Amino acid sequence: MSAPIAILGAGAWGTALAIALARDDGPVRLWARRADHAGWLQQSRHNDAYLPGARLPDSVTVTNDLDQATNDASVLLVVTPAQHVAGLLQQLKRGDAPLLLCAKGIERGSGRLLTEVARELAPSRALAVLSGPTFADEVAAGKPTAVTIASDDDPLAASLVARIGSPSFRPYRSPDPIGVEVAGACKNVIAIACGLAIGAGLGENARAALLTRGLAETTRLGLALGGRPETFAGLAGLGDLALTATSPRSRNYALGLALGEGATLDELMRGRSSVVEGAATAGAALLRANRHSVELPIAQAVADIIEGRATIRDAMRGLLARPFKAEG
Ligand SMILES: NC(=O)c1ccc[n+]([C@@H]2O[C@H](COP(=O)([O-])OP(=O)(O)OC[C@H]3O[C@@H](n4cnc5c(N)ncnc54)[C@H](O)[C@@H]3O)[C@@H](O)[C@H]2O)c1
Ligand SMILES: O=P(O)(O)OC[C@H](O)CO
């Protein structure tokens, strides 16, 4: 029997990954932050709060005890929202099981990528990143899905692909964790912009333009941070952007759509438990881009709207007033 896999975070994505990775040959432990939630999940096998309709297989054990979840695990999947990854890593005991970072975002305040957070807070552990076009409910339902697993450590990436892959959950290996992280984080910001455009009635041409120029600015940032150009045409880049920036089932796109239709951010965020990563990442990406003198006009527009510095109309007008230039 293989060593256990620990999945840290019992929102929609952690739950879907637990279901996808549950096998007869190795147990899966799912860590939930709240004791009452862990107890309910373990007993009912359902996660109505975050992933209604899915059922946890018997080989998944749910706990809110981090030591119990991680003890003897072969790999720890980090699946909390990006802004809580540092808090989680600070609670982890020292150990040598690798981390597979599955959250998509850049840290607010510091502009750090999650691999940079992990390198500082869990220096003894090898790192890999999992990203790509993955609506959790489809993964939980066993629908065909392809992802990227990226690491500087190719044997680690290969062993994770072997442990995690199945006919319906197909990981592709990549040597570019930085590019994969930047792509996964920024697509959420671009998805908000695309939702805004449709919600505000600007049309599908505008959305296609935002998606394409969004990929161009994401690529600029990724390259400045050391990513590889081909990553942005891959699953974590174009693949995830195509999914997220066109589907009302994306929480990021849906937030933009509702804002564009006239809802306020306050109304949309009040009482909400599920995460909209792009809202925090817009400003964090800008912070990081400014340090590298990289321009992110679309992320700037999204951050200006989200952080209350511009109306949607003014931000969109600002984008349209930019000087004409060569494509690239
Ligand atoms: N849902 C998806 O389809 C999907 C797919 C791929 C990647 N992701 C990424 O996975 C990450 C998690 O998203 P999700 O959809 O599972 O979240 P979710 O919105 O379903 O659930 C939110 C989770 O955040 C947890 N949480 C709230 N406050 C916290 C805190 N202070 N510390 C630790 N955890 C806290 C909640 O307990 C809950 O587990 C995000 O970065 C998201 O972009 C999600
Ligand atoms: O619902 P979203 O916008 O958080 O997107 C979920 C996944 O990241 C899609 O790949």
UniProtKB/TrEMBL annotation:
Magnesium keyword on record: no
UniProt keyword annotations, A-Z: Cytoplasm, Lipid biosynthesis, Lipid metabolism, NAD, NADP, Nucleotide-binding, Oxidoreductase, Phospholipid biosynthesis, Phospholipid metabolism
Binding locations of sn-glycerol 3-phosphate: K104, G132, T134, K187, D240, S250, R251, N252
Any one Gene Ontology molecular-function term assigned to this protein's record: NAD binding
Domain Glycerol-3-phosphate dehydrogenase NAD-dependent C-terminal: 176-316
Protein's GO biological process: carbohydrate metabolic process; glycerol-3-phosphate biosynthetic process; glycerol-3-phosphate catabolic process; glycerophospholipid metabolic process; phospholipid biosynthetic process
Listed InterPro entries: 6-PGluconate_DH-like_C_sf (IPR008927), 6PGD_dom2 (IPR013328), G3P_DH_NAD-dep (IPR006168), G3P_DH_NAD-dep_C (IPR006109), G3P_DH_NAD-dep_N (IPR011128), NAD(P)-bd_dom_sf (IPR036291)
Catalyzed chemical reaction(s): sn-glycerol 3-phosphate + NADP(+) = dihydroxyacetone phosphate + NADPH + H(+); sn-glycerol 3-phosphate + NAD(+) = dihydroxyacetone phosphate + NADH + H(+)
EC number per UniProt: 1.1.1.94
Annotated GO CC locations: cytosol
UniProt-annotated binding residues for substrate: K104, R251, N252
Residues holding NADPH: W13, R33, R34, Y50, K104, A136, R251, V275, E277
Domain Glycerol-3-phosphate dehydrogenase NAD-dependent N-terminal: 5-154
Record pathway: Membrane lipid metabolism; glycerophospholipid metabolism
HAMAP family: NAD_Glyc3P_dehydrog
Cited function: Catalyzes the reduction of the glycolytic intermediate dihydroxyacetone phosphate (DHAP) to sn-glycerol 3-phosphate (G3P), the key precursor for phospholipid synthesis.
Name of the molecule in the record: Glycerol-3-phosphate dehydrogenase [NAD(P)+]
Species the sequence originates in: Roseiterribacter gracilis
